[in-house]
Amino acid sequence: MITFNQLMIDNDLKKGIEKLGFDELTEVQEKVIPLALNHLDIMAQAPTGTGKTCAFGLPILNNISKIESNEVKSLILAPTRELAIQITEDLRDFCYFKEGIRILTIYGGEAIDKQIHALKKKPQIIVATPGRLMDHMERKTIRIYKINILVLDEADEMLNMGFKEDIDFILSHIECKHQTMLFSATFSKEIEKIGQTYLYHPEIIKISNKCLTVDTIEQKYIITEENNKLEICARLIDTRNASLVMIFCNTKKDVDEVTSGLMQRNYVVEGLHGDMKQMQRDRVMARFKGGSIQVLVASDVAARGLDIDDVDLVINYDIPQDDEYYVHRIGRTGRAKKQGFAVTLVAKNERNRLRNIEIYAKTKIEPMKIPSLDEVMKVRMKRIIDNAIIQYEEHNDKKYSNNIKNVLYQKLIEENIPIENITIGLMLSELSLEQNLEIDENNLYSFTVNTQKKKITRLFISVGTKDHLNKKQLIDLITKRTNIKDDDIKQIEMHESFSFFEIPTKYLEECIYAFSKKIDGKKIIIEEAKQKPIKESKKKRGGKNHKKR
Questions:
Q1: In Å, how far are 231, 351, 352, 517 from 448, measured between CA atoms?
Q2: pTM
């Protein structure tokens, strides 16, 4: 395994990396950095959380000398303002010990006049969202004619968000010779077309889809009814004794409803979604990072690119709509080799979706029981008692203490009320037990996948010769989307509108999952083939004795 000290980069950058506690390179860093340092164009297919920023960031920073011109030397395009801000923060961390590097983030939602003023400081690196960069280009407040390095980060996400025309506009205005690095979780036809149009003989890098989650994250799921989800969130927060919690929802409406529901239960909570102004989002994030908010409820778009350490618990209130988002979400916990905990709440009809996520991330998500009300009460009671002791030790004012003692004395002696009654009553008033007592705490649904004893499986696929495919092209179609090798595909039988083939059974789930989404806009059905009928000739044994007489 290569370490950062072995890289041919500036010593000040090595010191910055060491300060961050990085030692060994991730797979994407090990493959990209040497090529990038040699100024080659690169197309890298790498999922979220694989260390891409460091992979392109170090070569960019290494390319800038201490005595540098006042022109923009490197441009990094990112799909969202949050990711752009995070990339900027990471780059500043990497070059902590390297003087003279000026980095500016450009994004929508911030006053353009403020950005124009910041541009007067002549940044060498600009990290930008496409739309706002185009605004500056049209105003001629940013000129990118002489850049040395261009990075397209999360290119697939930029296309999904409708930035294709913006990207074409920006890239067509870079007329000088430069190095381009493109990073994408998937390689669609549109991504490949961008590579063919704007990159020069790029090096193609594909990061092997090993387990995309880390060992330090304990992953669980709970099968539950929709109306019990908020209650389960509250119980998980309490029983895990979590200081920082992130809850992910699929819609802005759910973000608002979950935030409101937890507020009513006296949690210190804020929501984060795309309809909020940037100033509001920055304020919420600052409070959460500072620890003054215990729970952050967020949508995927708003949370994309956020870098938050020390999150104790991640809850997927909704199962994510995209498999990649699962990895992105739970990666908020278990950072810096610390232990993390992630729980996904799953409706009964969503169990197959959870299985797809397991196949995609190559991980195992285990079932867990809903924390019981008794567990919750014990945790809350202990917290109330501990807080009461702290209050007594830190704020024991004689005046108030004497008043409290007098009132207690009156209740205990004159009114003959037992101390237990007072203590239990005070505890109950603080417990906020509005829980739905009808929740079935032992209702643990699990699912199992039938294990195949046979070693070879025959599959049906809904493409054939009418789709202009031959056997070799069919093999290519399968191997490009799976880890199956050419030699693993046997007994191919092609017909006009469908085909059959055999693969090792260990690849069955991966193969079916790989075709679960549309390919180039077309839905391809792939499933285990029905058993071939036994031919009549094979049924006949014993020659003439089986013939009709």
A1: 26, 10, 10, 23
A2: 0.58
